[in-house]
Write a structure and sequence with these properties.
The complex is a heterodimer.
Chain A (H helix, E strand, L loop, with lengths): L2 H23 L3 E3 L4 E3 L2 H12 L1 H16 L12 H5 L3 H19 L3 H6 L1 H27 L4 H9 L2 H21 L15 H4 L1
Antiparallel strand pairs in A: 1-2
Chain B lengths: L12 H4 L2 H17 L3 H17 L4 H26 L1 H24 L2 H11 L10 H31 L6 H25 L9
Helix pairs in contact in B: 2-5, 3-5, 4-5, 6-7, 7-8
Classes of the chains: A mainly alpha, B mainly alpha.
């Protein structure tokens, strides 16, 4: 890894952590005829993975959660502090970095040309990641903290599914657009090419 | 948006206690509350939390405002478990949960964000061996906190631009420019860090 990429990585991780925060703070966007207001927090969580890849995506969302827990009011609705993590919906927050990591892991494994064109595949990567980590850990949090049974937690969690699908669709559309604009954001898996320092130094 | 969050300056013993000690105490409280069973432990935990909250000078109003959403949810949960599992369980889980949330809020009210983040940065020092660089962690905290207001600005600009074109119902017109400009800004920041020779130690 060269020098340029490490500080740019750090800036990208911080930038996406801030983006997740902003998306959690923005008022809900109305989609379609305005019937479905969606909040953008999980959109940005999975986007961080899809745009930055597994490692940087995981770290970006982890940074967001840590800073929010430390007291900066960046959780949805401007909440902050460890109380949000300790509360009944804390499981969802714990699931966020892991979901971003998984989503990034899957998107990194797509052929590069597909990353910039294939919206359905990225959509599926996001949907799978949020099912595996966000919803499962969210329900586990409800079971542990709110003393619900798994069945009851499932009933609560179910409410979010439609919104989740819409958010992942938006995530896939935005992620492909970003990769078209910055084709070098995800690193190549096989370091066959010369590092690009020569061109920019 | 105020970046101060819930923190409220003061000089009580709770304010002077180091952030790391408070974080550790909170973790211990989380375990104790789960281990102790029975309605009495829920009431006792809640009692301790209320005393500490009063001592921290947080103020009832401030606490209620901060915890409104959580309180509502916990009330529903307590009512539900009273109905399903009897009042003892409701008191236990409701008391435990409220106590933890209150204690966590006391930490947030009595500790500035940067002190908590400093404690976390110091806490990751032992991880140096596995490739985590505490200085870079601290820099990441600083960069992110700085980036929140500027990204919020970007979001407002993007929304206004979309509205001007009559596209404020189109998620694409709202989100694509926001994210692309965030990435471009982050890359410029990365180059600026390099130009100043900051964070240029290669990792791994």
């Amino acid at each position: 890894m060269n020098r340029r990429s490490t500080s740019t990585d750090l800036a990208l991780i911080a930038g996406f952590a801030a983006l997740v925060a902003v998306c959690a703070l923005l008022p809900a966007i109305k989609v379609g005829a305005g019937i479905v207001p969606i909040t953008l927090q999980t959109f940005a969580v999975l986007l961080a993975g899809a745009v930055l890849g597994a490692r940087r995506g995981f770290l970006a969302v982890l940074l967001y959660v840590v800073v929010g827990a430390a007291g900066l009011p960046v959780f949805s609705g401007g909440a902050s502090g460890l109380a949000v993590l300790a509360g009944p919906s804390g499981g969802y927050l714990v699931g966020f970095p892991l979901a971003a990591g998984l989503c990034g892991f899957l998107v990194e494994r797509l052929p590069r040309r597909q990353v910039a064109t294939n919206i359905p595949l990225i959509f599926l990567a996001g949907l799978l990641s949020s099912a595996v980590f966000i919803h499962t850990l969210g329900m586990a949090g409800l079971v542990l903290r709110a003393d619900l049974t798994w069945g009851q937690a499932f009933d609560v969690d179910k409410v979010f599914w439609i919104g989740d699908a819409i958010k992942n669709l938006a995530m896939a559309i935005v992620a492909t657009a970003v990769h078209r604009t910055f084709p070098d954001l995800l690193r190549r898996r096989a370091p066959r090419r010369q590092p690009e320092t020569a061109a920019t130094a | 948006m105020s970046l101060l969050g819930l923190y409220r300056p003061g000089s009580t013993w709770l304010h002077r206690l180091p952030a790391s000690a408070k974080l550790l105490a909170l973790v211990v409280a989380g375990v104790v509350v789960v281990v102790l069973r029975g309605p009495l432990s829920g009431v006792a935990a809640l009692g301790v939390a209320v005393v500490l909250a009063a001592w921290s000078g947080a103020g009832v109003r401030r606490l209620v405002r901060a915890l409104r959403a959580l309180l509502l949810m916990m009330l529903l949960v307590a009512a539900y478990s009273a109905w399903q599992q009897g009042w003892e369980r409701a008191v236990e889980t409701g008391g435990d949960l409220l106590a933890l949330v209150l204690l966590a809020t006391v930490l947030t009210v009595t500790t500035p964000v940067d002190e908590v983040l400093d404690a976390v940065t110091r806490g990751v020092r032992p991880l140096r061996r596995v490739g985590v660089d505490p200085e870079r962690v601290g820099l990441a905290f600083a960069l992110m906190i700085r980036a929140v207001p500027s990204t919020l600005d970007l979001a407002h600009q993007t929304r206004d631009a979309a509205r001007a074109r009559g596209l404020d119902r189109d998620p694409r017109a709202l989100l694509v420019p926001l994210v692309i400009r965030s990435v471009a800004h982050a890359r410029a920041t990365g180059e600026a860090l390099d130009a100043r020779g900051i964070a240029d130690d290669p990792v791994v």
